Amino acid sequence: MRSLILLGLVGFAAQLVDGSLGMAYGVTSTTLLLAAGTGAAATSATVHLAEIGTTLASGLSHWRFGNIDWKVVGKIGVPGALGAFAGATFLSSLSTEFAAPIMSIILLSLGLYVLIRFTAYGLPRGNLGKPLRKRFLAPLGLVAGFVDATGGGGWGPVGTPAILASGRIPPRKVIGSIDASEFLVAIAASAGFLVGLGSENIDFAWVGVLLLGGVIAAPIAAWLVRHIPPRILGSAVGGVIVLTNVRTLLRGEWVDAPGGVQTVAYVTIAALWAAAVAYSAREHRREKAIEAADAELLGPAPEEETARA
């Protein structure tokens, strides 16, 4: 019972982050399930089955708050579903011993990307209003869907930064569109795992608890996306993913590092992680101060002047 409660809290926290950042539900949940000793394919199947419900709830919540560009959802979601189905059937064919470290390497790479991307650059805001073309979104969806299914997460870490980097739609609509299109990816990946694994290797109690936690968090996250600093959250989440998957790799059969080496690695990563979060917080405050100074120099908007008159 205690493990199910903890799993529900994991689902809640992961969806809270995912719904406000556009990534990390699958990566966070998969990382923690792998750390608990669950098989790679079964872990990804469990997470994706739960995501059918959480992504639906998240998509509806983002739609309610006006955070979705439906053209983007259509152009990226269908290729993403195809990639996810292919990735799920591929992972199902691998042995657990071989798949677990491969998944940890994928997750570690995604964690490093998220940590560096958000710490160093924050959220780009140039080129707003320019259209996103299908020849960009379709290949992106195909790759992100495949990575998502084989890594247990990756739709958001691959798709969200790529669209954000284009600077063509507001960040809140990037996050809402990625979350809404992930519903198609979750259905396709789940179908692939059920074809490849069958249902006997999946713990549906775990699926239900992860789903419940995520559904509760979805509307809260959709509201928070307008208020929480994504740069700080991205640094924090990236650090968690990096630290947890380094731990999995160092303790696995591929590396099997001595205890002293593991301790040094954990302390080093924790120190760098803390520095990254502190840097992101400082940069966020600096950006806000610059925005406030610019607004003061420009003076009140024309409509404010009219209202005063």
From TrEMBL:
<keyword id="KW-0812">Transmembrane</keyword>
<dbReference type="InterPro" id="IPR002781">
    <property type="entry name" value="TM_pro_TauE-like"/>
</dbReference>
<keyword id="KW-0472">Membrane</keyword>
<feature type="transmembrane region" description="Helical">
    <location>
        <begin position="262"/>
        <end position="281"/>
    </location>
</feature>
<feature type="transmembrane region" description="Helical">
    <location>
        <begin position="98"/>
        <end position="116"/>
    </location>
</feature>
<dbReference type="Pfam" id="PF01925">
    <property type="entry name" value="TauE"/>
</dbReference>
<dbReference type="InterPro" id="IPR051598">
    <property type="entry name" value="TSUP/Inactive_protease-like"/>
</dbReference>
<protein>
    <recommendedName>
        <fullName>Probable membrane transporter protein</fullName>
    </recommendedName>
</protein>
<dbReference type="GO" id="GO:0005886">
    <property type="term" value="C:plasma membrane"/>
</dbReference>
<feature type="transmembrane region" description="Helical">
    <location>
        <begin position="232"/>
        <end position="250"/>
    </location>
</feature>
<comment type="similarity">
    <text>Belongs to the 4-toluene sulfonate uptake permease (TSUP) (TC 2.A.102) family.</text>
</comment>
<keyword id="KW-1003">Cell membrane</keyword>
<keyword id="KW-1133">Transmembrane helix</keyword>
<feature type="transmembrane region" description="Helical">
    <location>
        <begin position="204"/>
        <end position="225"/>
    </location>
</feature>
